[in-house]
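Encode chain A's predicted structure.
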Amino acid sequence: MKRSDLMSHLNNLLEPHTIKDFSPNGLQIEGKDNITKIVTGVTASQALIDAAINHKADAILVHHGFFWKGESQQIVGMKKKRIEALIKHDINLIAYHLPLDIHPTLGNNAQLAKLLDITYEAGLELGSAKSIPVKGILNTPLTGSEFAQKIATVLNREPVTSIVRDEKIKTIAWCTGGGQGYIDLAAEQGIDAYLTGEASEQTIHSSREQNIDFFAAGHHATERYGVKALGEHLAAEHKLEVIFVDIDNPV
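Encoded structure for chain A:
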């Protein structure tokens, strides 16, 4: 498949032009023009790049790419080594951040909901056509402890929890990755529980003082599934060879 055709398909599918982001979405490092094999993963780390080289991949497709807002523009050290390896092996680096979080079927939020048996209802940011956090219904109401155990079983990671309610969880809001700041928005709307990837010190106080159960299931663990689903979509629709490589990360 021509790189230009692949990028056209991805941009039409994920619509990066419709959301403001912290890094460029789409093609970040240009490699070979013809693409037949893609390695997918959460983050464009050196370990993932090395795996792509070993697999003789033509492209790497990730959720967390390069060139983040506020970082140094110098290409030195770790960044230089990563980019040098990609250019040396003529590997394309393609990254989609927020557009992949919010895609209604392939996105991180949608895939996490599917795994945990949650039904999406609406965006949590009222009035936003592209809300990053979302809300819905836990199809089988569970106590906080039961839901924590389900997370641990499904994602293979023990969540950080703040369980403050005695009642079963029925309504839930969630945002994969580093979305802990949205807990206050969920609490304002009277939602029973909030699920994300990370926790900050103040998050626990927000949970306790606003009577909302909180679960942090890991940034990496909650964001494995969007890019995996996107790769499976490309394999099915365009007959590309796609290999998902999960570089373990406890955070």
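The domain at 103-218 is CATH 3.40.1390.30 (Udp-n-acetylmuramoylalanyl-d-glutamate--2,6- Diaminopimelate Ligase; Chain: A, domain 1).
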